[in-house]
Amino acid sequence: MKQLIKIITAFSVLIAIQQKAQTPISLESAYEKAFKNNLNLKNGQLRIDYQDKIKKSAAVIDPLNVSGEIGQFVSAYTDTKFSVNQTFRLPGFYNSQKQVLMEEWKNSMLNLDVQKWQLKREIALIYNELNYQTEKEKLLLRADSIYTNYYKRAELRLKKGESNILEKTTAENYRSQAEIQLANLKKDREVSLYQFNYLINDETMYSNENSNFYEINGPNQDINYAGNPIVLKQLEQQKAIEVAKLNAEKSKLLPTFNIGYNNSSMYGTGADDQFYERSARFHSGMIGVGIPLFNGAQKSLIEGQKINQLIAENNYELGSKNLKNQHATLFGEYEKLKSETDYYKSKGLKNAETIMKTANRLYYEGEINYLEWSILINQSLDIQNKLIDTQKLLNEKIIQLNNLTQQ
User: Fold this and answer.
1) Fewest CB atoms less than 10 Å from the CB: which of 37, 237, 272, 345?
2) Domain assignment present for 105
3) For the domain that residue 115 is a member of, what is the CATH number?
4) Quick check: is 314 in a domain?
5) Is residue 262 part of a domain?
6) pLDDT tens, 87-136?
7) Strands 268-269, 256-265: pairing kind
8) Are 178 and 137 in contact (CB under 8 A)?
9) How many domains does the chain have?
10) pLDDT at position 399, please?
11) Distances in whole angstroms, Cα of residue 246 to Cα of each of 60, 93, 107, 208, 254
């Protein structure tokens, strides 16, 4: 009885897991959940929080220096002395350091926008892959049904002596190929579902809805495409960071100021011919200026930072041209695939159905043999398969183009 309960429980858990894995979700809902739960985006938000916390670190002042002395300062008697010194920099130094941190904080926010932009494309591509696998499964199930019926008919004809073993073997081979393809498709779908749910990062396991695979909104041709604004903003921000860093390096050449206070004893007779006990204390103040005379090393850093600034400017131009080139290439590929899918939808599918119906009728009427029938059936299925494959590629180009023009 206990063993039976364990089996029932395990079976119930298995059913629950399978049901959980079949929870459908729309593409827009997948975006929302991923933006909320994706681990990379969480890291991006933590980076923003970190940059926000350290913005005040630009105002850090050098440590207060406290020192003490004991010895024979002005006479043979032992005296004591303690000093307090503090170094300050000009406001320009602190402002330049603060500007670097501000620009890096802005960059962390733009970086999160870029991560969302990239994540949205990844989810859309995987969602399209799941839709593709759904359509592929429908076609393979249809092929499996056709070849199974063909096999049963060939087996019956062989028993009646109306055909030879070659027809039955051919039918069995076609059926086996369909089964193998279905099994492989199932494994591919498991991988795609894992990738899809990894990006969403939710406790519930999701799959694609039965959305229309063949009607995804196409892009509008933009001959004046200048690049994706999200990416360009981040590249522009990199330029701002390097400019701020250059100013920060220059500010290190500014002089520093040092303010000090001394307090000491002077046991014995002073310069005023008066005798002073050890309890008497004498005070003095000090102010100094630190001038960076030996600044060759710092100037080298400044020159190096100027090169980094040029690199950031070059990266902006390179990124802009890469986006334009990518857009032009994708749009050319999109137009070719669009023409191909339009043909399959307008003529190819009709021809495929006509071929299949005609081949079945002629085969059942005995006007063609099984080899001729199988050639025609495979031709019909191949046309349908090409439409699915081409539509998948077309959808990928549309997703990538829409992503490039996303605001």
Assistant:
1) 272
2) yes
3) 1.20.1600.10
4) yes
5) no
6) 989 889 999 999 999 999 999 999 999 999 999 999 999 999 999 999 99
7) unpaired
8) no
9) 1
10) 93
11) 20, 12, 17, 50, 14
